[in-house]
Amino acid sequence: MKFKFHGISIDLLYASVSLLVVPSDLDISQEAVLYDIDEATVRSLTGCRVADQILRLVPNIESFRTTLRCLKHWARRRGVYSNVTGFLGGVNWALLVARVCQLYPNAVPSMLVSRFFRVFTQWRWPTPVMLCAIEEEELGFPVWDPRKNPRDRTHHMPIITPAYPCMNSSYNVSTSTLRVMIEQFQFGNKICQEIEMNKASWSALFEPFNFFEAYKNYLQVDIIAEDDEDLRLWKGWVESRLRQLTLKIERDTYGKLQCHPYPYEYADPSRQCAHCAFFMGLSRKEGVKIQEGQQFDIRGTVDEFRHEINMYMFWKPGMELAVSHVRRKEIPAYVFPEGYKRPRPQRHLNHQHHSDKNDPGNGSPDSQLKRKHDSTGIDDTEPCRSVKRASISPVHPKTSSPRSGNVSDEPISNNQQKVTSNASGGSQDSPGSGNQDQTKCSSSSHASEKSLDSVASGSKCVKIEAVCSGDVTSKHVDCISPVKDSTAPTVAVSTTLKRVAEKVVLELVGSESIGGNNAELLQIAETDMGNVLVENLHFGGNGVPQSGLPEELEV
């Protein structure tokens, strides 16, 4: 019987012992209590006998209990606390923690938590975890022994109970669920290492697992009934068989497709009938060679599972089961805590820029709309990200462009001065640079305001770094004209922006030919300024090939 008493989950077990009167001081730890009883009673008594034996075998009971409470809470947060779905239950976690307590008898709970993840990250499964040697009495009950029992050899994560008859308490673990738990052990070990180096806090260890962002494909198991009581019975039956669906998928795909059953249920409040749903993440097994584009047809596997589910002895009209394949973007909104899907982290638009080069629909309105949506992002409160954050060095006056070694004496035409803003249709400053709507055109006493205005006429100044004549200062004068065509080619913009920037430098220096003072000025500028960061602009091509400057710009 399962129930909750003051919020504490309790399993009440029944045992029929071979005694006329059950004394109040009956010691069930003695093997004599197991005489002349059936196997069901043995299993009932084993739970209490194992709990008592664990407390006898741990060196410090209080440290054991504190550590166990911590790790059970961690397991629930990370979605690996469920014996029925193929993970570990309360007894399993207690045995693992007790083994670590034996290995570190003088450790405090915080040290035991850290050592727990270290030990079981390195544990070589299926090596069994045992608190004591396996006892073999003459009562005839089977004990876990892979040398004698071929079935015991198939267990993936054996955790052996310390009381007779010794059994594997984690026989429900499959290849897929073992993989998930090992990954979570590695996560916990990594966080604990960072905590020891004061790089993280304990709260980071208990961050919930983002299950619905971890996979691209999922199985959704919808359970429907007429009323809440029927749903409770129907759901319990289906949940107890979900582990079989995991095993069948592993069997039919030869282990190439792995499942991650999530042990939590979700209900759709918009449905009129009683409803809940379970989800299973699907992923290909790492390290297995799979043909490109290979797909897995598990429709027959799902039909077999549904057929077994419908064999429920207490089935009633209205009890229905539906298993469907959903992609990550199709996950229903009711599974998220806030009732809506959390926006995914925005990709840097530089990746989008490179992918668009080979996109056959690059010029289509749909592709342009997609790029504009990516640039603006989902959350309107966040500032738009820059198209490219490139690192360049000051342009040498002898060069008209990073790809040319000659000075161009031709003036910059009006067409060459046209530049477009970022895809969001507006200008922006880097975080902490001040108000975006204010002009950032502050010059030094030796800078030519007329020359700047001639280059940036009709434009809004955002930010660029330039070298001013007379003394070495940084000038924020990035000039971006009003948007006329938000879909202008990026390559043309890059070429035009380079010429505009070079013209600004040439006019600030005051000469188009290298001279004594100017050469010295540029040499000082190269030493003091280093690489110039250009915000919201994209420069392609090669850098100036001279000492201390990059041979190539990062694209």
TrEMBL record:
Query: Which controlled-vocabulary keywords does the entry list?
Result: ATP-binding, Magnesium, Metal-binding, mRNA processing, Nucleotide-binding, Nucleus, Signal, Transferase
The Poly(A) polymerase central domain, residue ranges: 63-207
Family in the record: Belongs to the poly(A) polymerase family.
**Poly(A) polymerase RNA-binding domain: residues covered:** 210-268, 270-344
Report any one BP term from Gene Ontology. Answer: RNA 3'-end processing
Biased composition annotated in UniProt, kind: Polar residues: 398-441
Signal sequence annotation: 1-19
Q: Which GO terms describe its molecular function?
A: ATP binding; metal ion binding; poly(A) RNA polymerase activity; RNA binding
Q: Source species, please?
A: Aegilops tauschii subsp. strangulata (Goatgrass)
Region entry Disordered, spans: 337-455
InterPro entries, per the entry: NT_sf (IPR043519), NuclTrfase_I-like_C (IPR011068), PolA_pol_cen_dom (IPR007012), PolA_pol_NTPase (IPR048840), PolA_pol_RNA-bd_dom (IPR007010)
The UniProt entry's GO CC annotations, sorted and at most eight, read: nucleus
The record's catalysed reaction(s) read: RNA(n) + ATP = RNA(n)-3'-adenine ribonucleotide + diphosphate
Q: Where does the record place it?
A: Nucleus
Name of the protein in its database record: polynucleotide adenylyltransferase
The EC number(s) given in the record are 2.7.7.19
Q: Where is the Poly(A) polymerase nucleotidyltransferase domain?
A: 1-58
Q: What is the lineage of its organism?
A: Eukaryota, Viridiplantae, Streptophyta, Embryophyta, Tracheophyta
Q: Which Pfam families match?
A: PAP_central, PAP_NTPase, PAP_RNA-bind
| Cofactor(s) needed | Mn(2+); Mg(2+)
Q: Where is the composition biased (Basic residues)?
A: 342-352
